[in-house]
Amino acid sequence: MLSAPSIAAPTAPPMPGDIAPDAVGMTVHGRPVRISDYRGRVIVLTFWASWCAPCRDELVLLERLQRSAGAQRLRVIAVNWHEARGRFPALVAQLGPAELTLSSDADGRAGDRYGVRMIPRMFIIDRDGRVAYTHTGYDPKASIGTIVDEVNTLLAQTPPDLRPPP
Length: 166
Description:
Helices cover 27% and strands 25% of the residues. 33% of the residues are buried. The protein contains four helices and nine strands; from the N terminus they run ββββαβαβαβββα. The chain has helices at residues 53-69, 88-95, 109-113, 143-156; strands at 2-3, 23-26, 32-34, 42-48, 74-81, 101-105, 118-119, 121-125, 131-136. The protein is an alpha/beta fold. The protein is globular and about 40 Å long. GO terms for molecular function: disulfide oxidoreductase activity. InterPro entries: Redoxin, Thioredoxin-like_sf, Thioredoxin_CS, Thioredoxin_domain, Thioredoxin_ResA/DsbE_sf.
């Protein structure tokens, strides 16, 4: 796990059951990225940086996971953490034609709301916008199997719009 240099003290990370903080950066076109825009889908929110090799490896696997599940059921939001906003377009171009939702958190505010202290840092969010699982670090042999199991558990649950009224 790698830490970013000279960051502000983040708040405590949201825990399973907590509502996920909504604002998670800006797209390459300057539009805000919000968790609420993907309500009804399972969300994998991951914080990464270009200098973090495990982060880049994880992004490749997360894109495959999103492709497999379908973007209408699962959305991966990859937040570029604490890198200059001016570098973000080049970083997006380096990733190629990614299907992931990419956002920039150059000022670290989104990371602060999520209590990010090191990367990779992941939050798996259910269809109702609540944090279901969290992960710190990445182990290619162990992490992806656990992540797939957690995502599949959430995907198997009945979507909010199909639940019977209370």
